[in-house]
Amino acid sequence: MIRFENVGLRYDMGPEVLRDLSFEIRRQSFQFLTGPSGAGKSSLLRMLFLALKPTRGLITVLGRDAATLSRADLPSIRRRIGVVFQDFRLLEHMSTYENVALPLRVRGKDESSYRQDVIDLIKWVGLGERLNASPVVLSGGEKQRAAIARALIDQPDILLADEPTGNVDPPLARRLLRLFLELNRTGTAVVIATHDLALMEQVDARRMVLADGRLEIYD
Ligand SMILES: Nc1ncnc2c1ncn2[C@@H]1O[C@H](COP(=O)(O)OP(=O)(O)O)[C@@H](O)[C@H]1O
Ligand SMILES: [Mg+2]
């Protein structure tokens, strides 16, 4: 679904942060992306989301060479990729419901066609009581789940999550992990960037490990 070939990345005139990355994210696969702070996990996720261009190498997303995509092509590809950013990026003047519904609204869908799906998904992530609350009054864990619901509402082929358990206690982290596994079982490929070893130990999943700019993969 996504393929990297000899991808390298540097910021401005700095050293190469990522070097010679070659890997594939397969349809319906589940993997952790790990490595110490500063290893390049967030940078790699940004490249997977086509929000950052590699300095060299080839990225193919859903069969298309990322370098040849125009700005106009991006929305239709990104719609198939759900992202949970580390800082959530929820809109504070909107309710949980409106935040989660936003991708569908932006797409011009009629609210009557999705209203119940949005409510059901918000309940599924355990925020049924917070439907009309502003993100301002949500706890860190609640914001995390709202961001996850927004990433999932348009049924992406792939979910990218950057430290999705970074703000929650271990029981909630385990619950979120179960949520990702359940999502994966329904057919979505999942990439979770994390340096939470306790979290990774709970699942026998593929690990993509970044260190010193290079990637090692343990299937
Ligand atoms: N926008 C940026 N400009 C310059 N350097 C950056 C930028 N973003 C990240 N870096 C650098 O790239 C390296 C990898 O960062 P990052 O991808 O955030 O790692 P991680 O998510 O694993 O902590 C770090 O050395 C960081 O300082
Ligand atoms: Mg990061």
Automatic annotation (TrEMBL):
Belongs to the ABC transporter superfamily. Homodimer. Forms a membrane-associated complex with FtsX. One of its GO terms (biological process) is cell division. It is found in: Cell inner membrane; Cell membrane. Residues 2-217 form the ABC transporter domain. It is a peripheral membrane protein. Keywords: ATP-binding, Cell cycle, Cell division, Cell membrane, Membrane, Nucleotide-binding. Part of the ABC transporter FtsEX involved in cellular division. Important for assembly or stability of the septal ring. One of its GO terms (cellular component) is plasma membrane. The keyword ATP-binding applies. It comes from the Bacteria. InterPro entries: AAA+_ATPase, ABC_transporter-like_ATP-bd, ABC_transporter-like_CS, ABC_transpr_LolD-like, Cell_div_FtsE, P-loop_NTPase. GO terms for molecular function: ATP binding; ATP hydrolysis activity; transmembrane transporter activity. This is Cell division ATP-binding protein FtsE. SUPFAM superfamilies: P-loop containing nucleoside triphosphate hydrolases (SSF52540). Pfam families: ABC_tran. The keyword Plastid does not apply.
